[in-house]
Amino acid sequence: MPALADLEKAYAKARRDSKFRRDFRTYLREFAGRETPLYFAERLTAQLGGAKIYIKREDLCHTGAHKINNTLGQILLARKMGKKRIIAETGAGQHGVATAAVAALFGLKCEIFMGKEDTHRQSLNVSRMKLLGAKVREVDSGTCTLKDAMNEALRDWVTNVRSTYYLIGSVAGPHPYPLMVRDFQSVIGQEARRQILAKEGRLPHYLVACVGGGSNAMGLFYPFVKDRRVKMIGVEAAGWGLRSGHHSASILGGKVGILHGNKTYLLQERTGQISHAHSIAPGLDYPGVGPEPSYLYDCGRIAFVSATDTEAVSSMRTLSEVEGIIPALESAHAVAEVIRLAPRRPRKELIILNLSGRGDKDIDAVVKFLGDKL
Amino acid sequence: MNRIDAKFTELRKQGRSALVPFIEAGDPDLRTTLKILRALAQSGADLIELGIPFSDPMADGPTIQRASERALKKGASLASILKLVSEFRRYSDIPLILFGYYNPFFHYGVKRLTREAKAAGADGFLCVDLPPEEGRELKQWAKAGGLHMIYLLAPTSDAQRIRLVTREAGGFIYFVSVTGVTGSRRRFEPGLSNLVGKLRRRTSLPIGVGFGISTPRQAAWVASFADAVVVGSALINVMEKERRRDDKVKRAAAFIVSLKRAMNRVVKKSS
Question: What was the ipTM of the complex prediction?
Answer without folding.
Answer: 0.92
